[in-house]
Amino acid sequence: MFCSEASLRRRVYIDNFPWVLEHQNIEDMPARKRMITSIRRLLEKKSGKKWLSKSKLDLVKRIELNLYESCFTLEEYSDLSTLKERIIALARKALVSQTA
User: Fold this and answer.
1) What is the domain extent for residue 48?
2) Is residue 47 within 8 Å of 68, Cβ to Cβ?
3) Pick from 30, 48, 46, 58: which is nearest to 83 by CA?
4) N-terminal to C-terminal alpha carbon distance within the chain
5) What's the domain of life for this entry (predicted)?
């Protein structure tokens, strides 16, 4: 049985910002919220600025979704020790697909 699109979308608040997350498993939501916060903080640290604009927050959401969909396990997805490397790999993959 397939879930309806409405059941795959859920509005959550992370760091006081509304997010509509598409998810495969409701039990993964706490880990995904933590990951969004971790990604945003990592990018803020790198840039030296707060990431509060809608376009930057949308980028964080797209990064998170790509990381979530590319991992085989929640444990692999949640591993913050590899987060920076996974984001770099994702950026390289996006760059290659743009130039192809």
Assistant:
1) 5-99
2) no
3) 46
4) 37
5) Eukaryota
CA 57 to chain centre: 10
Cα separation of 73 and 41, whole Å? Answer: 23
Burial class (CB in 10 A: 0-12, 13-18, 19+), 67: buried
Do 52 and 8 form a contact (C-beta atoms < 8 A)? Answer: no
Residues 6+ apart with CB under 8 A from 28: 68, 74, 77
- The count of domains in the chain is 1
The tens digit of pLDDT for each residue in 5-55 reads 333 445 566 666 555 555 567 788 899 999 999 999 999 998 888 877 888
Query: Is the pLDDT at 3 greater than 60, yes or no?
Result: no
Position 82 pLDDT exceeds 60 = yes
Residue range 45-72: mean pLDDT, rounded: 87
